Amino acid sequence: MQDDEQLYYQEFTPSGYGISIKVKKVLFSEESEFQKIEVLDSDSKLGKILTLDDLMVATEGDEYFYHEMIVHIPMLNHPCPKDILIIGGGDGGTVREVFKHNTVEHVTLCEIDKEVVATSKKFFPTLSCEFDNPKLEIIYENAIEFIKDKKNCYDVVLLDTPDPLSLGVGLFTEEFYKNVRDSLKDGGIMVTQSESPVALEEEIKEMYSMLKNAFSIVSTYTSVIPTYPGGYWAWAFCSKDVEPLSFIDEKRAEEITQKCKIYNLNYHKACYALPTFLDELK
Amino acid sequence: MQDDEQLYYQEFTPSGYGISIKVKKVLFSEESEFQKIEVLDSDSKLGKILTLDDLMVATEGDEYFYHEMIVHIPMLNHPCPKDILIIGGGDGGTVREVFKHNTVEHVTLCEIDKEVVATSKKFFPTLSCEFDNPKLEIIYENAIEFIKDKKNCYDVVLLDTPDPLSLGVGLFTEEFYKNVRDSLKDGGIMVTQSESPVALEEEIKEMYSMLKNAFSIVSTYTSVIPTYPGGYWAWAFCSKDVEPLSFIDEKRAEEITQKCKIYNLNYHKACYALPTFLDELK
After folding, report:
1. Inter-residue contact A64 to A257 (CB < 8 Å)
2. How many angstroms separate the CA atoms of A79 and A100, rounded?
3. What's the angle, vertex CA B222, arms to CA B216 and CA B224, rounded to 5?
4. Do A19 and B22 touch (CB under 8 A)?
5. How far apart are CA B46 and CA B5, in angstroms?
6. Which tens digits make up the pLDDT trace of A165-196?
7. pLDDT digits (tens, 9 = 90+) for B70-89
C-alpha cells in the first residue's frame, strides 16, 4: 500500500479496475458550454493528458494505441476510402491518422465542442497537426442532428465518441446508428469505439444489440490501450455489405505500417480473434 | 482529479503507467523468510488480491488472464506433455491450468517460499484447488540450485517468476536459462513470463538477449492482463527444436477451451501477432 502527498489522475470502473498516473501539475482547466476540459502534465513519458469531465481522453505518450486502431482497420478494409466522416474526435488524433491514407479526398469532423479543438491546438501539437489540412472541414454541431439528412455520402464513418455514461449518451442509440448506416455509400464501413470489454460489460452488450439492429454485419476487434482502465479496448466494425477481412489493401497497409507504432498487417489480421469470454460480442 | 480517504492498492512503473484498486481491508500481512506477503480485500469483483513485497501477484477476479496464457500456449504446442516443471507459481494458478491437460503424468512445482503456498491455500481456494493432486510434487527450494542437475527431464517448463527487479533477480540470467534448456527433453518447450512490454522496456530487451543466447528458437506472444500496469503482458516461447505454431493439438485445444475464459484456438493463433513497436521482440 502506498501513501504519500503526490497528485494523481485516477479513474475507476464499476468492475474494480482503476488506473493511476502521477501528475506534476494542472496546466489548464475550463468549463466549456458542454463539459469540463482539463490538461494535466504527467511528468513522465506519458506527457500531457487531456481529460473531459474528469475522464481521460488521451495522453501524448500513448494516444496512438487508440487512434491507429480506430482508423486503419476500417480504412484498409476499404479499397479506396475518399470521403470520411469523424464524429467526436476533437483532439485531432483520428484526423491525423486518416490523412495518412493517400486515397482521402475530403474529411468531415463533426465535433460538438469547439473548445476541445482549441485546447488540442494549444497543448497537443502531435494530435492537432492536421487541423489545418485543406481537405478537412470542421463542423461544430451535435452529430445527432448533423447525420439526419446525410444519405449515401461517406466511405468510412468513425465514431470517436465519449463514453455512453457521459456527454456521448445520445450517440449510443439505435436511431443514431441507423442514420449513420444510411449515410454510408455502398461498400461503406462504420467503426465505433465500443468501450472496455472488461469494465462496462452491461453497457457494451446493450450497445452491440443496437448495432446489430442497424447493421447486418457487426464484428468486434480489440487491442491494448495501456492508460485506459483494464488496459483493453474494443471497436465494432459495422457495415451493410462488407465483411471484416474480406479485403485488405496490402500495398497501402505496407505504407501505413511505415508510419505507425502499432499497425501492421499481421496485427490487423489478428485483432478480430477474441478471448473466449467475449464470444458474445462476435 | 480525485481526493478522498479511500484505501488503495497502487502500483507504478518507470514509464508512468499505474494501476489503482480500491481496497476494503488488509486481510493478512506477514514477513516470510524471503518476502512480505499480503492479502487484500478489493471489495469489488476483483475479489482478494495477493501481493509479494508490495507487488500484485494475482487477483481472484482476473488471474485467469495470466494463468491460461502462460500454460495453454506451450502445452498445446506439444503433442503429449507428460512431465511438467513450474518454477515459482506458488499461488497455484499455473498448477491448476496444467492439470486441465489429460496427458499430464507428473508436475513438479519448485517454489522457494512455502508461506506463499500456505497463504494461497488459506485465502485463494480457486487458485490452490490442485495443490492436493497426487500427480503434483512441491519442492521448496531455490530454482537456481534445483535446475542444475536436471537433464532431459521435462516436456514443458514454465517460469512463473516474480519480477526481475525483486526476489526473482537470479532467475533472469543466461546461466539459468541454459540450465532450463538442458532440463528439457527433445521437443520440449519453455515459456517464461517476460513482463509488461510497455512498462519495463530496457529490462525486457536484456532478458530477450539472454534468452536468445540460450535457445535457438525464441518467440514472443502477448495478451491483455487488466490488473497489471499497462494492462499488457508478454511471454517468451523458447525451444531448441520446436517452432511456435508448428503444431497445435486441436482436439485437446477444443477440450481446454471448454474449461477456459480466455483460451481458444483463434486466440492462440493470433497471440504471436505483435504491434509494430514490439518488432524487436520477435
Report:
1. no
2. 15
3. 165
4. no
5. 20
6. 667 778 889 999 999 999 999 999 999 999 88
7. 999 999 999 999 999 999 99
Q: Which residue has the higher pLDDT, B106 or B55?
A: B106
B103 or A45, greater pLDDT: B103
Please name the member of B10, B22, B42 whose beta carbon is closest to the beta carbon of A2: B10
Q: For position A130, what pLDDT does the model report? A: 98
What's the Cα-to-Cα distance from A73 to each of A77, A223, B248, B264, rounded to whole Å?
A: 6, 11, 28, 23
Question: Which DSSP letter does residue A100 get?
Answer: T
User: Taking CB atoms and an 8 Å cut-off, how many pairs form between chains A and B?
Assistant: 161
Chain A residues 50-79 within an 8 A CB cutoff of chain B: 54, 61-62, 65
d(Cα A125, Cα A123) in Å, to the nearest integer?
6
| pLDDT confidence tier of residue A1, bands split at 50, 70 and 90 | very low
Q: Are B60 and B47 in contact (CB under 8 A)?
A: yes
Give B202: exposed, middle or buried? Use CB within 10 Å, 0-12, 13-18, 19+. exposed
Q: Using the beta-carbon criterion (under 8 Å), do A16 and B45 form an inter-chain contact?
A: yes
Q: Which residues of chain B lie closer than 8 angstroms to A14, CB-CB?
A: 44
From chain A, pick out residues whose CB is under 8 angstroms from the CB of B264. 275-276
ipTM for the complex shown: 0.92
In the stretch 118-177 of chain A, residues with CB closer than 8 A to chain B read none
Contact state of B19 with A16 under an 8 Å Cβ cutoff: no
B4 catalytic residue (yes or no): no
Work out the average pLDDT over B35-52.
Answer: 95
B23 Rama sector, left if φ>0, alpha if ψ -120 to 50, beta otherwise:
beta
- Flag if B17 and A54 touch (Cβ within 8 Å): no
- C-alpha cell recorded at residue B4: 478522498
Which A positions 70-129 lie with beta carbon below 8 A of chain B?
none
**Torsion region of B54: left, alpha or beta (phi above 0 gives left; psi -120 to 50 gives alpha):** left
Q: Compare CB distances from B17 to A1, A8, A226 and report the shortest one's residue.
A: A226
Query: Which of the four pLDDT bands, split at 50, 70 and 90, describes residue A153?
Result: very high
For residue A45, the chain B residue with the least C-alpha distance is B15
**What is the predicted pLDDT for the residue at B242?**
98
Place of cell 497497409: A253
- pTM of the predicted protein model: 0.94
The predicted model gives A102-107 an average pLDDT of 98
